[in-house]
Amino acid sequence: MSAIITLSLLAILLLYLGLFKAGRSLLPISLLGLAAALVMYVMQWAGDATPIYSGMVLFDHYAIAFSVLCILVTMLVMLLSKGYFDAASVHVAEYYALILFSLTGALLVTSFHNLAMLFIGIEIMSVALYILAGIRKKDFASNEAALKYFLMGAFSTGFLLFGITLLYGASGSFDLAAIKAYVIANPQGVSPLFYAGILLLIVGLAFKVGAAPFHFWTPDVYDGAPILITTFMSTVVKTAAFAGFLRLFYFCFIPLHDFWEPVLLVITIITLFIGNITAIAQQSFKRMLAYSSISHAGYMLFAIVAIGPAAASSVLVYAGAYSLASVVAFGILILVKRATGSDHFEAFNGLARKNPYLSAALTIAMLSLAGIPLTAGFIGKFMMFSSALADYQVLLVVLAAINAAMGIFYYFRVIVSMYFKPADRDEVTMTAQYQAAIWVAVLLTVVLGVYPTLLAGLI
Amino acid sequence: MDNLFILLLLPVFGALVLAFVQQAKAARQFALLVSLVSLAFTIPFLVNFVPDASMQFEQRFAWIPSLGIHFHVGIDGISLPLVLLTNGLVPLIILAAFSYDYKGGFYALVLFMQAGLLLVFTALDAFAFYVGWEVALIPIYFICALWGGENRIRVNLKFFIYTFLGSLLMLAAIIYLHLQVPTDDYALSSFYQLALDSSTQRWIFWAFFLAFAIKMPIFPFHTWQPDTYTEAPTAGTMLLAGIMLKMGVYGVIRWLIPVAPLGVAAYGQLALVLCIIGVVYASIIAFKQRDAKRLVAYSSIAHVGLIGAGVFAWNVQGVQGAIIQMVNHGISVVGLFFVLDIVARRLGTRDLAAMGGIAKPAPILAIVFLVIVMGAVGLPLTNGFVGEFLLLLGVYEYGVWYAVFGGLTLILGAVYMLSMYQKVMFGDVNEQTAAFPDIRGSEWLVLAVIVLLIIGIGVYPGPLLNISEAAVAELVDKVGLIGKN
After folding, report:
1. What percentage of chain A has pLDDT greater than the value 90?
2. pLDDT at residue B198 above 90?
3. Across the interface, do B168 and A401 touch by the CB < 8 Å criterion?
4. Do A262 and A230 fall within a single domain?
5. Cβ contact (<8 Å) for B145 and A408?
6. What residues of A are in contact with residue B67 (Cβ under 8 Å)?
7. Residue B124 has pLDDT above 50, yes or no
8. Per the UniProt record, which residue ranges are transmembrane (chain A) (predicted)?
9. Which member of B67, B131, B146 has the closest CB to residue A374?
10. Do A267 and A244 belong together in one domain?
11. Do A401 and B65 count as a contact with CB atoms less than 8 A apart?
């Protein structure tokens, strides 16, 4: 809990620093604060986890692992933001503070033990994001993204809240342990209200993770928001939303698996196909990543559809692999867009000749997203396939295999542009912070791909 | 010295260093050195190998304990010839690329692919096998797409997606099998002990078969192959035809048939028929080709069709023939592609109609090419004869008519190969071929090694056959019993 308090205070401190025009100290102080929070989380690992603050939050291994992942990825995003937001907006301090507020919400979503806390966490996370998506005040696309995100987010929150209310109506409590006890105490069947509550929760959470058919906001918001905000949304926020999704279902709803499994199965299959097929048609690298993030949501849903003891570590590995690869992809996109002014595939033409190592980094990220062995992305896909097959979802895995093969088509497109299409261009230059963020992410991708035990056996 | 793990890691380290070498000359010399060191490290395995059916030089480490995955490798009589083939051909392929100005990245990819191939041929754990299977695919994609011909981008994407889809279905089957294993691991031996019911094995058969059939390729799954071979740079074609297609055959022998014998009992005949159709079909098409490289690409489909038929016949002669023929085909096809590369580089075209009369200005090349063509055709006292003879014997035991149609490879092969030879070497010289320089330098070295191997194995195939005999006999015996029960 001390970590969450630290981060909240840190965000307020940053706002004051902005007031006193201490722009240069923003990044070091944020990173320092994040590192401190990280250490606090890691130190909690050994202790016994019991629900604290009247059972509101529970910092078990699950929560700590996901929180550490979120903080790490936020640090990488912060490293990329050096110089980016000075150009985008004069309110740089607000940007840092809002990212930290959103992260705080994300951390609550990974560690809630009470449905009220889940709701509050999601709101803290989202409200900051609504502002961040529109932080380029003079840019139409950014404004559109913010408005769409806000309207859709508010709408889905309605579903979520309604679902929570119905669960409360049936079980008489917001507490996860009490709801679980209620489900177990009624093996013959729970109240119809409860079933309706689960369905509404699925709708609300599917909105948040960007699963089809509730995905319509994703491409426009991801495309319209500034690239770094998109990076944050598609990594930290998505990881946290999945962690919350899985935590709720793993904790409370396993006995009712037969009821909600078909619903989620259909959502998963639609998500896979819509994400993949529309990604193939894209001309913009950024939009392609937005659609591919929908299909990755589909793969991550595997763990929830076929929920089991391995579900948590599958989602952790997959989310980690996806986040790291996304940081690399978006980071390089920022550089290329700055150099050429375009985020289309053509903007990458001839990059390999001028920046061979940067191109190699992006290639590794793409291979990881495509799920090729010796990258973290493969281990993630492997674990997802394993958990689905353990639940005898053979058809789902066959469909997923077809989708993964389709994925090659668009992930390799940028590789084709970089290596095989010549173009006159200048060398892309970058700061040391950029180098650090990109290479740390690439290194972790390969290390996790070769030796995944570091993460796979954690929870 | 016979540490298999070091043998697998050597090319990886070589590749890591080469990735940063920008100078062409230094890169090629270092690459050759690494590949020769790998070859030298293979010799202790050959010397210490005991020719019985046991698994030797085994190494096993925990890799991902929470998922039951081990890094488990070993060599027996079936994998040793292929390990020898891989480590023997890679130096030749690197040497054959000396005429081009490739930088370190090219050689890094070749060596990285070598590591993947070696892992495929030695893996005793299904996860490790799959990793090797995919790791071999990425470098060859880049080799073909970076240094290939005009249509390389489209052709290679098709190749990649095609093979990747096959691999993913195999991955699903591997995970499914793992979930049935009581000891919760991915070991080959555990997979062998599974006695799944017939309907499950049929599914498993198709999942594995698609992956392997696309890789080999067997008849209706071959559509990627001629384009990819033709568009690839010569070194890429050599890697694809010389070594990579053997991954598919090896997979059938090592994984598909022993793991799903009942599936093979149900569909093995169909697979065999497809192989034979491929033989006849590819031979006829090869005859019509004007592009020399494409002709050899189709001949490769015909040869691998006969190899596949021998494997699916599943008797000692057939499988033995398949193993020795994999080695032979690797040697011959690398030789063929190399000669054609020499000719195409000097004439600036691969069109057979533009060639002719080269024998006169380049007599040494003509003799060498003749030996290689004879080896590919399967003339007695060349390496191809031993393999094709055993294969046909194996197929004959399975059914006379299969052998009759399979035997067409010998006749049709002779027809298109000799007619190609005639078009290249004899006939009237034209302006370009009149001043054709004979082979020199590194070309000479590569071709001399290939010719020696072709004749050496053809005259005295005993040692090579001896390596795999006991292992094949036991495997056929063991799995044959399960299949008939």
Report:
1. 62
2. no
3. yes
4. no
5. no
6. 383, 386, 456
7. yes
8. 61-80, 92-109, 115-135, 147-170, 190-207, 227-250, 262-281, 288-309, 315-336, 357-380, 392-416, 436-458
9. B131
10. no
11. no
Which residues in chain B have their CB less than 8 angstroms from residue A457's CB? Answer: 64-66
**Domain span including residue A414:** 257-459
Answer yes or no: do A152 and A270 share one domain: no
Token duo for residue A376: 């973290």
Interface check A22 vs B, CB under 8 A: no
Q: What is the mean pLDDT of chain B?
A: 89
From A313, A404, A451, residue closest to B168, measured CB to CB: A404
Residues of A in contact with B160 (CB under 8 A): 408, 412
Shared-domain flag, residues A23 and A44? yes
* pTM, rounded to two decimals: 0.93
Chain A residues inside the 8 Å CB shell of B131: 373-374
Q: Which long-range contacts (CB under 8 A, 24 or more apart) does A121-127 make?
A: A121/A240, A121/A244, A122/A157, A122/A160, A122/A208, A122/A241, A122/A244, A123/A157, A125/A237, A125/A240, A126/A102, A126/A153, A126/A157, A126/A208
B19-50 as b/e: b if 16+ CB within 10 A? bebeebeebbebbbebbeebbebbeebeeebe
Q: What chain A residue is nearest to B137 in terms of C-alpha separation? A: A372
Predicted local confidence at residue B71, as pLDDT: 93
Question: What's the domain count of chain A?
Answer: 2
**Average pLDDT in chain A:** 90
Q: Is the CB of B130 less than 8 angstroms away from the CB of A373?
A: yes
Q: Do A217 and A338 share a domain, yes or no?
A: no
Q: What is the DSSP letter of A375?
A: S
From chain A, pick out residues whose CB is under 8 angstroms from the CB of B138.
367, 372
Shared domain for A318 and A207, answered yes or no, is no
- Among the three residues A219, A252, A285, which one is the final residue of a domain in this structure? A252
Strands B56-64 and B69-75: antiparallel
Interface size A-B, in CB pairs within 8 Å, comes to 78
CA distance B55 to chain A (A): 26
Q: Of the given ranges (A16-30, A365-379, B248-262, B325-339), which has the lowest mean pLDDT?
A: A16-30
The verdict on A197 and A60 lying in the same domain is yes
Identity of the residue in B105, B135, B172 whose CB atom sits nearest the CB atom of A401:
B172
Q: In chain B, whose CA is at the least distance from the CA of A372?
A: B134
Chain A residues whose CB is inside 8 A of the B165 CB are 401-402, 405
Domain boundary among A237, A252, A267: A252
Say yes or no: A367 contacts chain B, CB-CB below 8 A.
Answer: yes
Least Cα separation, residue B66 to chain A (angstroms):
5
Map out the domains of chain B as residue ranges: 267-485
Closest chain A CA to residue B144: A420
CA distance B409 to B386: 14
Across the interface, which of A390, A401, A452 has its CB nearest the CB of B169?
A401
Clarify whether residues A272 and A215 are in a common domain.
no
